[in-house]
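anyone seen this seq b4? input:
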Amino acid sequence: MIRSFARILPLVLFLAIGVSAQTPTRADLGELESRVRTLVDRVAPATVGLQIGTDGPAGASAVIVSADGWVLTAAHCIPEVGGKMTVLLPDGRRLAATALGKNDRLDIGLVRIDEKGDWPWVPMGLSSALEIDEAVVAIGHPSGFDLARGPLVRLGWILARSAPHGAFLQTTAKVRPGDSGGPLFDLDGRVVGIHSNINTSLDGNFHVPVDLFRENWDRMAAKEHWGKGGIGAREDPWKGKPYAGLEAENLDEGGLLVKRVRRMASAARAGIKPGDVIIDVDGTRVPTWRQLGRWLRSERRIGDSVVFGVLREGKRLEFELTLLPKPGHEEKPPPGPAKASSQAPPASAAEGPRFTRDFEELAAVFDKAQDGWRRAVVRIESRFDEETREILGTVVDAGKGLVLTKASEIGAEPVAHTWSGGRGEAVLGASDLRADLALLRIEAEDLTAVDFEASPALKPGAFAVTAGSRARIVGVGVVAVAEREIDPIRVAVLGVFLGASSEEAPGVLVERISDGGAAATAGLLAGDRIVTIGEVTLGGPQDLHDFLRAHLPGEKAKVGVRRGEESLEFEVTFGDRPDLDMNGDEPPVPGGLSGRRGRFASAFRYDAPLRPRDCGAPVFDLQGRLVGLAIARASRTHAHVLPASLVARVLADLRR
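predicted toks r here
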C-alpha cells in the first residue's frame, strides 16, 4: 500500500545530514529555499519539451544531459524508435532530434539532438545514493510545453527507492500528465530520476532511477527496443530459462508420448520426433510431463546438455539435447554498468549537504507568525441549493469587519466563523468577478487585519505558507511558476488526441477519442482526419488549438472529416474538460478542484495541496510577509495565488 501522510504534507522541517538533531530554525529553511532557487535557475534551461515529429503533440518532457545533445525521457513518450522528434527549449529554440532506443517495461528512453551545438545541459547523479526522506525537486512541462509559462517546479521527498509495482523511485514531488519524461533532481542539481507515472494518491509519484539509464545506455544508443509489454510489465517467465521445444502426454503404462516437436528448438535439433516415447532423462525416470518441464527450468540452464532416453518402434535410443532459449524469448545480455567505452555521461559528485524532513517540529518555526495569522482568517459557510459550502476569508479591515474572499464560492445566507469561536452573519458587499474576489462585512471583535500593500513578488523555488482559521496552517509549498496571466480554463474541448501530421495528407489525424467527449458524442472515430472546423481549414494542430481557444464549452461547430475515401460532416457541441494532453487524463484529485480556477489577470502557482475550501486565505513567505491570497486549487500539482499587488488594487476598487 502506498504510504500516506497528513494533508499538510509539504509543511515540514529540515535537518542537514551530519548535524545533530535540534529544533530547526527559519535559517535552516532559508538555506533550503536558497538552494532550491539556485537549482531552478541552473537546471530550467535544460528541462525541455518533447514533440512528436515537427508539428505533432508537444505533451511530454525531457532533459538534456550532455552539451552534445543526449536527452533522457520516458519510454512511453517515444512513439517509435528511430522516429523524428523535436526538442523544445525554454528559450524558444526548436531542435530536430531522433528517438533512439527504449525499454518499455523500465520506461527508459533516449533521444539525440541532430544538430551539433553546445546545448544547455545538467549532470546525471546516482539514484542509488538517495536516502529515504531526502529532499528532491521535480521539474517538467505539465499539460504540455508552454513557452510563455516555462517549466514548473515542485519540491518533495523520497518515500521509497523501489516502489511496489516496479523499480521506481516514489516521492511526494507531485507530477501530472505532461511531466512524463521530465527530470527529478537532487539538491545539487543532478538528475536522479525521470518522471514516469502516478496513481490516485498525492504521494503516488513514480520516477525511473537514473542509474537504469546509465546501465542500459549502450543498448538505447544502438536504437534497440526491448522490454516490451508496458510500464512495470511482468518479467517474461521464459527469460533465461531453457526450453526443450516439445509437447508430450503422460502414458498410463509410464513414459511420455511426444505429440509435437517445435522446429529449430532443442528437441528437433537433437532428432526427437512425434511418436517417440520418453522413458528417462539423464538416466532418471520422469513421472509426468509437467514434472519434466519444472525440472528442466529449475535444474538446468541454457547451454546445458541433457540426454533423453527414448523408445522408437520398440528400440531404445538416446538423444543429447543442447538446451536453447524459447524462440522469440531470447534476450541479449545487458551491457551492465557503463564502462569507460560507454557513451553515457559520468555521474557528477555531490556538492552540498542533504536535507531530510522531521514531521514533529512543525509549529516551532511558524509559532510567531501564527499569532498574527489566527485573528486574520475566518471561515465562511453559505448555501448553494441544498448544499452547504465552506471557504476561507482574509480580514482586511478589523475595525469595520471587512473580509476578502473568493467570490464564486459565496452563496446564499453567508455566515462567518472567527478564530475565537464567534459566529455571525456576513453581508456581501462589492465583487470583482475578473479577480473572483468579494468583500464581506462581519460583526466580530478581536480581529487582526493584513496589509496587501507592502508585499514582495516570489520567484520559483521560494517557500509560500497558507494560513487557515484558528491558527491552522493549511498548506506550505514552493512557488512553481512566477506571476503570470492564467489562461482561461473554460475553453472549448473537442475530446481528441492528435497523431503525427503528414505533409501529404490534409488536416490533423485523430489518434484517439476521449470516451464521452464531444467528438465521440458527435460520431468521430479514431483514424479520422479533421480537415475543417467551423469556417477554418486546418493546416495543422495549431490551427485546431487556436480555434478551440477562441470558443467556449457548449458552443457548436461543423467539423469536416475525411474517413478513408469518404468526406463527412458532424455537428459538435464542445465539452468543458480542461487539461487534455498526449498523456491522457490525470486521476481525480483528493478534495477536488475549485470550480473557478482560471481566467485570472495575474497569479503564481505553488505546489501546496490546498483544498477548494482553503481558498480565500492569506499566503505568506518564509519571513512572514504577506505575498498573496489563495484563489483556486487548479490541478493535482498546484494551487493559484493572486499576488498581493493585484489584490491591493482590486481591494482599493471594492472599497470605493
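The CA atoms of residues 433 and 439 lie 11 Å apart. The two ends are 55 Å apart (CA to CA). kinda curious what u guys think
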